[in-house]
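Cont'd.
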Amino acid sequence: MEIAYVICVGVLTFCGVFLCLRGRTFSVVVGLTMLSYAVNLFLFSSGRLNLEGAAILGMTDNYADPLPQALTLTAIVIGFAMIAFVVILAIRARADLGNDLVDGRDPPDTNKMIKSNEGKS
Amino acid sequence: MSLFWITAILLIGVILPVLTERFGRTVNTIFTMLAPAIALAYILSLVPSVLAGEVIVEYLEWIPSIGLTLSMHLDGLALMFALLILGIGLLIILYARYYLSEKEAVGRFFAYLILFMTAMLSIVLSNNVLQLWMAWEVTSISSFLLISFWSSKSGSRKGARMALTVTGAGGLALLAGLLLIGDVVGSYELGVILASGDLIREHALYPVILILVLLGAFTKSAQFPFHFWLPHAMAAPTPVSAYLHSATMVKAGIFLLARMYPVLSGTEMWFIIVSMTGLITLLIGAYVALFKHDLKGLLAYSTVSHLGLITLLLGLDTQLAAIAALFHIMNHAVFKASLFMAAGIIDHESGSRDMRKLNGLYKYMPYTATLAMVAAASMAGVPLFNGFLSKEMFLAETLHSTALGFLSWMIPVLATLAGIFAVAYSMRFIHDVFFNGEPRDLPKTPHEPPRFMKIPIEILVVLCLAVGIFPNFMVGGLLEAASSAVLMKELPYYSLSIWHGFNLPLLMSAIAIIGGLLMYAYRSHLYRFQSQFKETDEKLVFEGAIQALIRGATKIQDYFSNGSLQRYAAILLTFTIVVTAVPLINIHTVVSHLPTQPISGVEITAAVILCLSAIATVIYHRKRMLSLITLSVVGLIVSVAFARFSAPDLALTQLAVEVVTVILLMLALYFLPQKTATESSPGRVSRDIGIAAAIAGIVATINYAFISQPFDTISDYFIANSKTGGGGTNAVNVILVDFRGIDTLGEILVLGIAALGIFKLLARVRLSMQTANENGLPWAQDRHPPILAMISQSLLPLALLVSFYIFLRGHNMPGGGFIAGLITSVALIQQYIAHGVDWVKPRIKVDYQTLIALGVLIAALTGVGSWFFDRPFMTTWFDYFDIPLIGEIELASALIFDLGVYLTVVGATLLILANLGKLTSVHRPTPEE
């Protein structure tokens, strides 16, 4: 089961990082969301994978570790706040810059630059 | 009084000249001299005790918590330098009053000068090497300000920049050296360092320390090959040249050599480096000085040469040589300062410093000429003047040197040669300027300067003579005190007197004087020879080097920082791969102790769905709506996973957040393009796949590495104390609101700040909206479908009830403020979606910002409340009450804290969504009817 778990974390990380490297803001937001799933699962698993062991007193003999759970819970909420902020930033950037590119402008086209320099000289 | 007062008073003295500038130059000068005069008087009052061998050390706690203490240290060496700095400084201030014209910013000039004086004194009085270094750098900066005082001149600016670059870079090397010393010795205190000479010399790092410290000293004292900055610093007003570049600042390097003499000297390496650098500087300086037509240029190179002489003496490593070095420091400061001032007078009264134009000035200013001649004779090393005494000691010591082994005879010979040059350039200074025909087209007719302008020179010249004739009476005690501070042991026998009988040093002096006169007489041959060389302007070379450096740096900077965030992200991630992969590669065995748990069909199915939808999100990321749907599938599976792995609180939170996030992203899509064009080149895509795969691999490996390790947790404490200490059975919630309450307080604060930031970002945003969706279909006309409105309205009370229940039971069962807050938010947002902002607004009259503030306030006040019961911040209290009909209930202060969390979450979520949602109605294009 552990192996399946880490494979899932790996796949989520892969998709998250890949999307974060795209050039459009929306893809980056989706990527960040995906990455935060991966991070939350990663953090959560430091308490190991327990079945039937919710950390509620008197419900079970073998408690799952409550500390990573508490940390992950706040991480989820904070992660939401961060993603919300990035989304709104993207909207604001779209409104102010007129495009939804991460860099705020088209990637510099090296060929074009060389040509324009030649024209000047 | 304490030694700290000296720096304190001088620092006040920095402001005084600026404040008194408006009262005229004379008043200004008097006020400027006030602080140094007080400091000098205080130092003079300490002279008897220091001469008696006392070392005054004082401490002042600065930041005791990190072990920073200011401390002062006054011994013979520091005393000698302090007297020079303050004494000559006072004379310079008086001189500058007449040198600078009324139109110039005299107050500013004096302020810089006093600032420099403060820094220089702090160097010599420091008892802590880091403190010394600080002051060292302040002298570099204040000297930059002084050299560039006439900032309208290009030469001043370039000279100042050069001086700052060279001495500043040397200062950094010095800092490194001092830090290493501190590391080796275990203390930055001078007393400790001076006592650990053997420890440092035997340490493996000694060569590194020596080189770094010497770099600092040599750059400051203009030793070859760093000597080039000093002549260009002559662009400064002459009082500055006289003070900084002859008497004090350039001596700081020498001071450092003398201060560190007990620690660093005594090794082969010290002999060779210090003495050879000194010898080369001595020769080059003396030779070049002869060919300078500029009066100050001549003096500058002469200073370089004398600094080389002192360095050579310190490198000779006989005890008498060190004493001679100290003696020459004093003598050189006295005669060179007076010569600079004389040069300044000549410049001031005749309008030129070019020795090809200045001739026969004796007729016009006989008094100044006489003073200058005395000082120049001292510089040349003519008997009866102070320069002669130390020079003779120098010549005597060169004879004893064994630094070059069998070639040691070269040192006295080269020293005599330098002496010949010195006599020749001194002769030139006197003969060319004051005799040698008539002045040639000078801008002004020269005349004697104002009475008081001559006083500083008179005093110094009298000192030259007095020391030259009665050396023991004048400076015997001071030199002895300084020497014992440097040598730190019994002083060898030496005698300060003019006449030592006929001996080899006297012969060498005689050769130097006669040879110098002859060389001057036949100088035309030398000049012809020298004129074959092309003159290089160090300024151009230096500026060229700096420009090349800047170009290189700009190129590197432009390569990395081209303004593309995508590129930064890629570079950062690549760096992360390197940083995390290297330690992983070095781990060769992963010992797994835990048996892997069996996996069931349900889990396999969930994992497959999760992976497939994640990959689908990537594949369809250009169709944004579709990718959003697959993304929400991922989120759902994640929350199911939490539920499966015994984390019901997490599952609930994830579910609620998922709903809110998807609503938010859908709203966002309203304002963003629906599709992404294909932009990335195949190369870019494969690069990104590579980076992503590497990171994913590393993350998964680390994850596997730790979840297969045996379990060792600190959570047993939380579980054991959850009920007894926190009053709740849900350990996760008790951790959140009780054990780690402060963390949670911080987190809701972050949430609130993010929401307010979003509120600000959305204020006055100008958005453009599509009138149709991606396929060209117009938006539905039916904005608020009645069935949706009906159902959501009737669901609202139920949802609120559920959230209330979840909130209340949170302490004992899965739930709590976070989850309840999210559920409430979702229920309310549902109303916004179904009815629109215009409908909701009059019905929910809550200001969400106030809600956030209230939440944070309640949470914080709950924490503060515990102070009233003499408990630490955030201590919770709980008890059980029996209420009729309802039964026994528990009341805990943590519940109020959780209420704060709840309010903040509701406020923040709704502030974000409602504000974004509002925009859709404001900006919605009205369909054409």
